Amino acid sequence: MALAGWLAWAEIGPLIAASAQSPVAALMLMNSALPRLAVALLSGMALGLSGALFQLVLKNPLASPATLGVSAGANLALVIAMLFAPALMGFGRDVVALAGSGIAAGIVLRLGARRDFSPFVLILAGLIVSLWCGALAAILILMNDHYVAGLFIWGAGSLSQQSWDPALSLLPKLMVAALLAGLMIRPLSLMEAGDVTAAALGARVPRLRFLAITIAVVLAALVTSTVGVISFVGLVAPALARLSGARRPAGILVWSSVFGAGLLAATDGLVLWTTGAMKDFVPTGAVTAVIGAPLLLALLGGLKAHHRPLPSARPRPLPAQGLRRGRGRWIWLAAGFLLLLALALLVGRAPLTGGWSLPAVPVFGDILALRLPRVVAALSAGAMLAVAGVILQRLTGNELASPEVLGISAGSTVGVTVLLFVAVPTLPLQLVAASLGALAVLAAIFALGLGTRFEPERLLMAGVALSALVDAVCGVIAVNGDPRAMILLRWMSGSTYSANLTLSLTVLAVGLLLTTAALAMRRWLDILPLGSETASGVGIDLGRARFLLFLVAGILSGAATLAAGPLSFAGLMGPHIARELGLKRAGAQIVGGGLAGAGILVLADWAGRNLAFPYEMPAGLVAALIGTPLLLALIRRR
Amino acid sequence: MQSLSRRAFMMAAGIGLWSLPARAGGVAPRVVSLDYGLSSTLLSLGLTPVGIAGVDDWGKWVVEPPLPPEVADVGDALMVNLEALTALAPTLILSTPYLDGLTPVLETIAPVLRLSVYDASGGSILPKAEAATRLLGDRIGRRAEADAFLQRADQHFARCRDAVRAAGAPPVALISFLDARHARIYTAPGLFDDTLGRIGMRNAWPGGGQYWGFDTIGIERLTEIDAPNAHLIAFEPLPREALPTLRQSPIWNGLSFVRDGRFAVLPETLMFGMVNEAMRFAGQMADYVGRLR
Amino acid sequence: MFSISHLGVSIAATPLLQDISATFAPGEMVGLIGHNGSGKSTLVKVLARQIDHHAGVVTYGGKPIAAIEPRVFAREVAYLPQHTGDTGLMTVRELVACGRYPWHGALGRFSEADAATVEEAMVRTHVDGLAGRVVATLSGGERQRVWLAMLVAQNSRFLLLDEPTSALDIAHQVEVLQLIRALAHDNGLGVIIVLHDVNMAARFCDRVLALKGGRLLIDAAPATIMDRRLLAEIYGLDMGITRHPELGMPLAYVS
After folding, report:
1. A160 or C51: whose pLDDT is higher?
2. Closest chain B residue to A427 measured between Cα atoms?
């Protein structure tokens, strides 16, 4: 707080001095610097309070508007409204943001409720929803070039102000929400003792939880609608409140608000102070993420490592008999896959006329030569991500784990980002940079894992933090409107565009090799989900097995990222589709999931190449857009 | 500057070997251009490209000269549709340093001529655009047309200069709104800034930017413009909520050019273009300043 | 043959076990009893190599247990944790087959002999009728027997069981304990079992170790344990002893 005060003075002090002489400086003080400080304080307070409410009712120290995907949902809704219904953007802005964050929160919590709101499941679900919202926002940006930088600024959260209006409109709404939160302090204290006890004492637990979450979502939506996405304040403020001794709900709510306000004001002061000399444009929201991601990692240390919730009270409907066996499903899977391959290679849009057709005879060879590397790249990447997904899901006992989540893809993105600023980004150099990035993350993961026998949850959370960090860094670059941001955005959106035959075949070979390795380790994958005690009880060397499996999954994801970008969700969907087909043993799931993942990406690549012809939509984004709702439906049904 | 155009010339000279037969046969080369500035320059040299990148958005950014309907679309510049490109059977592909990542792929389809206007070496844009225009003229056998075009451009600039001088040539700040709180401001060196110099006007913005010639700022930083008679020009397209929101901002309303009505919104003009785009911009400025009287 | 001498375990300077010495032989069913937090679970976990010890020596077959290869150890000693993991969609036969891992390893062939051992283990534990069922759909008693079947399939010489009956009703407790006792006496397995109920321990075990506050209070035959004074010391509660009306064995009750 002292730091915040000092930084605020450092920014405002000279303006006050100058305002005596110059009317411009006075104007700046009254209508830019002071409102900015006010908006920072109010937004910080709202986020701190929102995070504290989430953490209290979900009993989850990692819950916050950003980690639960609430902010990303609001952002996506605002982007959609800005592009397609700009009339909504005046008074309707809050409503739009609220709708977006409400839907995102609903999806994440539904997923989380199935596992008794386990911190890890919630955060993973939140990350997936965030990634998906980000993917959709990105595709909208790609399709509407000229708004790019504006939308980026929104996503990165800028506090820059030109009047008191935002602060004054935020204040009363915030006060109402805070008052309602205050009224809930006593019932919330009851819930500390556990849901059952609270209910026995007369609290209506489900209604209480719903109300508290609603208030938290409203608070986050208000902030996003006013200044854009500000990550991590909502996560860190309650943690600081607890660290400084707040124990009871009342104390946590009050101190989280205070710390949130101070934290955001301090960060913003720091941003203004450091960039003041260069006058570069740096959005504060992205900076909070850069500071917050390492903090999230630090908080992980204090988190109980083994929060393995007991099986849900609601029994899952399971088939009483072992699932039907037979070759039928394999034949279907293989036939469908071959049909897809033929479609992807042969059917396309005719250049010039744009009609659907097979390639004309004179250019048949040329066209096929263009399509083949991309189909092979999509196929390999999809299969590799899916195999990595099978490994990670079994390793962590978490059906939401996937390579995207490990942060390896994020590492590749950092590699390419760095490259863009030091050299001409030719394709081979991009590949080298991406591999180096992936390997660096892999090394970091191993360094982190050595101390903890590669404890899966911790590694996954590290991946989450890393992904957030990468997003923030890319956001800062993109916001400055540098045209290189478009190259980065296109790379991140996951296209097979840059694949050539050499690359594709190399990736394919790596994929086949590592899939064979994964198949060789299938028994570990069968036994590890039974729990570490059972696994070591039958003689599995846990450290070694996990190390090898993580290594294989890591290289698979890294190589796949080279071929088809960092964001496809094939790694998440492949394993699920295999399970739906009844392939439940590790070996069968690897093969079936691999085929499914390959099929998804081949289909997405084909759709991306042809639907908007001659404009291309990246396969990764198409896969994420089609696949994620499908995936959520699958998960909900089970 | 000098060494740069020589380098670009030598690159182009290497490619000349391939493009020569097409010229020798008297057949016009089949050119595909991946850059708006190069595309409009081609049209001005009297050669219609068989295909360009981004046909859809031509009317949104370039506007003049109008694009003949027979020009095929090869998709987005950064993700040129290689199937469409192959089907056009080009004899020459025009590219820029921005698209360097694509060069190896493009070269498998046709010779690539890389013309450098916006690149990290910095420096003034307009002279580089003129040099690139001559170079392009050389490569497609239309050097005379190129010289004539540049002469027309100079005459146009001179006319604009006269009009501007007559109107008193006030300093101008040039922006594109990103949203209600942020804008791109065009800086020196840059296409707009260089063109202002050509027609005897001054950029009112004191700060610098990167080699594309702009910087991203919060609206409140417009208070840093200290020229007392400066005008603020915003270009279309405007985000819809920008002006309604800004009209309620004391900062915005307190800006001297807004207070005194020295603010205008002008039609869209490509800020990352070449000589044609500079001419369009110069014409718009001359018109605007002319209306002030 | 397990041998422990002067074993000590502590976590963050809090001693969990102190100065414990004992030996365990095949063919014998040994019960571990004590109040909550007495260290009985910790002792089993040390023997199962789930946690490290800080003082003393624990050997198996004369070798320090930490020096034995994981799979070699698993062929000798099988362990059933108190909370078993999520079996997902695994069938009974598939879960029991996991017990063969120490023998075939990650890459070895799952042989005819392995399959036969799995079938035999299911018969032995009376779960052969459930072989095709999904484990997660079974009742608590059935599920516990399936896990035991997995341990039996492991074909080890020792079973380490951490409260295998805690979730079962009285009928299933008896059924499972009878099964375990038969494994010890008929198949010659060494069994070390943590039990809550002193009467069950006295009835089924050959020997009982009582722990209190991380120290070994007594290591004796059940008859010796069933003593007012001793039980009062073990559980910190006045208890009385009576006789089973039919079997004549001592029964403890809270007075």
Report:
1. C51
2. B101
The answer to whether residue A319 neighbours chain C at the CB level (below 8 Å) is: yes
Beta strands in chain B (DSSP E): 31-33, 51-52, 72-73, 75-76, 79-80, 92-95, 112-114, 172-177, 182-186, 214-218, 231-235, 263-266
How many C-beta atoms surround the C-beta of residue A114 within 10 A? 18
B139-168 residues touching A, CB cutoff 8 A: none
Per DSSP, the residues of C192-215 read EEE-S-HHHHHHH-SEEEEEETTE
Q: Which chains touch A (3 or more CB pairs under 8 A)?
A: B, C
| pLDDT surpassing 50 at residue A43 | yes
Question: Considering only CB atoms, which chain A residues are within 8 Å of B239?
Answer: 82, 86, 147, 150
Q: Do residues A280 and A64 lie in contact, with contact meaning Cβ atoms separated by under 8 Å?
A: no
Domain ranges, residue A111 = 47-300
Domains annotated on chain C, with CATH: 2-254 (3.40.50.300)
Q: Which of A566, A420, A478 is nearest to A147 (CA)?
A: A478
Nearest by CB to residue A526, choosing from C50, C98, C134, is: C98
Please tell me the total count of domains within chain A: 2
| Beta carbons of A533 and C86 less than 8 Å apart | no
**Of C154, C220, C209, C190, the residue nearest C60 (C-alpha):** C190
Q: How confident is the model over A446-454, as a mean pLDDT?
A: 63
Q: Alpha-carbon Rg of chain A, whole angstroms?
A: 25
Q: Do B81 and A31 touch (CB under 8 A)?
A: no
The reply to whether the predicted model has a pTM over 0.90 is no
Predicted confidence band of residue B94 (pLDDT cuts 50, 70, 90): very high
Q: Is residue A337 domain-resident?
A: yes
Pick the closest to residue C22 from C3, C8, C46 (CA basis).
C3
In the block, which residue shows the tokens 């699958």? A634
Rounded CA separation A401/C251 (Å): 52
Query: What one-letter code names the amino acid at A536?
Result: S
At A404-436, the pLDDT tens digits run: 776 777 787 778 778 877 777 666 677 677 778
Number of helical H runs and strand E runs in chain B: 12, 12
Q: What residues of A are in contact with residue C98 (Cβ under 8 Å)? A: 526-527, 530, 534, 538
Please give the domain boundaries of chain B with CATH numbers for all domains. 2-143 (3.40.50.1980), 153-291 (3.40.50.1980)
C-alpha span between A569 and A631 (Å, rounded): 9
Higher pLDDT, B219 or A464: B219
Bridge-based pairing of strands B31-33 and B92-95 is parallel
